[in-house]
Amino acid sequence: MILRRLITLVICTTAFLSTFAQISNAVISGVVRHEQTKELLPYVNIVVTDSDDSFLTGTITNEKGIFTIEGLSTGDFSLKVSFMGFAEQTIPFHVGRLNNFLNLGNISLVESATQLDELTVTATRMEVASAMDKKTFAIEDNISQQGGSVLQVMQNLPGVTIDRDGKIFLRGSDKVTILIDGKQTAITGMGSQSGLDNIPASAIGTVEIINNPSAKYDASGMAGIINIVFKKDQEFGWNGKAGITLGVGALAEKEPNMAGIRKQYSYTQKVNPSFSANYKQEKTNFFVQADMLYHHQMMKNEFTLRTYENGDVVNQQFLENRKQPIYNIKAGVDYNPNKRNTFTFSALFNYREYTDLGDIPYDDMDGNRLRLWQYYENEVNQTLFATVTHKHSFNQPGHSLTSSFNYSFRRKDEIFNFTNQLYNPDKTGTDTTGLVADEHIFDLTVDYSKPLKTGRLEVGTKQRARNFPNDIYFKPGTNSILDPGLSGSAEYREWLSAVYGTYIYEHKKFELEAGLRVEYANVDYLVDPNHTVYESTGFDYIDPFPSVRATWLMSDNSRMSVFYNRRVDRPEEKQLRTFPSYASPEILAMGNPNLQPQFTQSVELGFRQSWNGGYLYTAAYHRMSTDILTKIITEVNGSNLLAEVDQNADKGQYTGIELVLNQQLGSKIRLNANGNVYRNSIGAFSIVNAYPNNVSFSAEKQSIVAGNAKLNIIAKVLKDTEFQITGIYLAPDIIPQGKILARYSIDAGLTKTIQNGKGEIFINASDILNTLVMRYEIEGETFNLVSDDYYETQVIRVGYQYRF
Length: 804
Fold this sequence. Notes:
With about 800 residues, the protein is mainly beta.
């Protein structure tokens, strides 16, 4: 019933279907044998002709009777096999869209005039535009965000939104798995979203958005997967690129400070030098890349009004100014000892340190100062990610076995000093907290791929062990407010084991990709035995995660696809963490080791129609989730203090439509418009926050129609000069305890190619009108909370880069 409604909904919103890019480099192969003796026949003539019987290309079999022909595009062809003393064979075949490789199998020649029956073969390719399961975006095409971080670049991509904490949302959900070069690393929190603002965009080549991952991918990420691909050249000899970007942010004040605190950062400086080099020879390819991003930034400028049922009102401002250097260096080598084997050795090191100065004043409804909280925080994160990959290619093109071993290490060292000035009674307190944590991840994957006459078979396995011990210490000062029963040690332990299989089949007008991933996960969270709230616990499961894609090729220029998959979102270590954060002392944030995984089933129907100069992509989707992972705020012991604790809500559903229109307007203007409208429904639920003392909270069922729209225009304004302007609008949405209000912004950029195409200069500006403000409304059992965050969003950058 749901699927039928989705089909009706999409057909009513689009008048045409979609087209896809043609394959331009398909590879066909096969083996020629003697019919009677089965002997391999060397030096047999192989010729490919088109539908008009015109010669296109040819080759001969090698000493083992094997032939390979490259460079074929999508279409119908004939393969003619001839050898002196044998009857010529003609084999028609079709090159489709799912596979790069087509295996014609054994071709037998007979020593007579008798012809063999014709063999019809379909070859297809998993190609971005055709499969509709992945969108790929080049970072260098995003002129308005060059010189920023990866997180800033992503906010301009179709279907992607960013919240006030830097979390990425795909189609309204923040359950997104982040990969780097196709792998989970500690840099991004082992697939979660931490650290994305610490990766310079200058280090990245492309960003892939995978809304419907196949069984080959890890089962986590209900909304999909974002794969960040680092730059890596493949040209022979020496080549590379060097660049520098300078910027300034917070050019205008959005909202003035409350009295008696430090100034907001303004005219914040940004510096981002970058360098990459590549040296490729016949058997080796050496690559290195280095980036530094140093910036000042006003991370938070949040004004919150809390109103309690007893009549109390607390007005507060949360100002956080940050200084931060970030360093990235990646180096490695590809080694090809022979044409059948390739080894890749690479390492990525990320160093980021930030120093935060925070001010949080608290006033009553008459403007009288109740409290002033000020802090100094210094955090150092060092991450190393090393990988060794081996790919063995069998004689048949596309037939391969790839194995990869990855090790990721992250050390986090944090110190937090704060001063607590109370005005009634008049007293001052000082305290210090610290956190030291080392994370170790061992990851082994094996992937096997074999082309078939009608598609491809893929099987593989993944094994992962992860250990993440934490040690938090409290050093109470005078008039301390710290709760010593919440300090101590904790340890996150994870073991994951998965196997998968995927079969891809293609007929001339039909494609099917069906896969199953079976995954076992065991997570233990060991809590300090002296902890006053939580005890050691964990979760485990062994579950199947199927994925299906069926595609109908309705013409050479259009197709329709239906997707189904089941996915899981495991609680992150930070969500389980039993230590409170004192960054905002009257709204303490804490994890919950009793969290359970969130499971989601989704269906999607997609269309795509292309024409000269553009295309329209349409998708309708429905997602059903259980045990929704969220945060719930409750009061502390009848006081005006609040606690924000991670919880599992009940069920939720997303039903929506996404549209992407790309059109060339004349010879100088290209337009890209993206719209996403969805209905977000959250079921009624009740929870109990264990901290501080089993506080209950209940919410009724709620729903809203939300969405977002983005318009991107790129124009050639002068010779070798392009101008880009991007507008973003995000409609109001709901969360399990309240709602997010609407917001919008405009970005623009200008780039010019110089020095015979080797150099490029650019200038861009984000949030030109300084309008982007994050607004939340939260409803508790005994209070209401309204929050407006005027954090830094307006930045102007200029840059230069040179290719050599």
